Amino acid sequence: MIKTIGIMGGMGPLATNYFYSKIIEFxxxxxxxxxxxxxxxxxxxxxxxxxxxxxxxxxxxxxxLLRMAQLLESSNVExxxxxxxxxxxxxxxxxxxxxxxxxxMIDATLEQVSGQDRIGLLATTGTIQxxxxxxxxxxxxxxxxxxxxxLQVVVMQAIMKIKSGVPGKQxxxxxxxxxxxxxxNHVNTIIMGCTEVPLIFQDNLNDSLLDPMDILAKRVVQxxxxxxxx
Length: 230
Hints:
About 50% of the residues lie in helices and about 10% in strands. By secondary structure, it is α/β, with parallel strands linked by helices.
């Protein structure tokens, strides 16, 4: 039997939609019945994750995430995933209250690049300040390189434009100075560590850009189809 996936989404809605499209893309199905049963809860009312990390007021986000996880658990999904990098900070604080396996997007991404010693990170200020990627990177002996404070302001401007519905190709040029800075620091691989960032680069993707949602979607497909008889 194909396993049922539960997606904790809405952070933001465009990113959740993009992630689900990746699951469909990577599923080797030739008819409807071979696709992966998926239950998506898209809750865009989850408070701003970066603002909550910066303020230290975690409980509202934690309560929303726990509610989503419990609803999915009661719907008999067999694994949880969350296509939002920054929200993983809060998940690590509540996961003991959930009795389902969870495919961790950040760990899966860094495992993919284990063996490299320096990786750039494009992410929200909350993800960077929470040291999420830096914490996981220690396990793989990877040095995470982040933009300067002034360039991080530019990154956040680009992310918020995507969230407001501005097409990625109109936002791409904003990040020119950020990408040039990575290049001057000899950073050859960059993690698109916010689920809106791949939407900025969708017309300008190259091998140096690593998409955690691609990696997570492939892990989801692998999990859902494991032990499945064709």
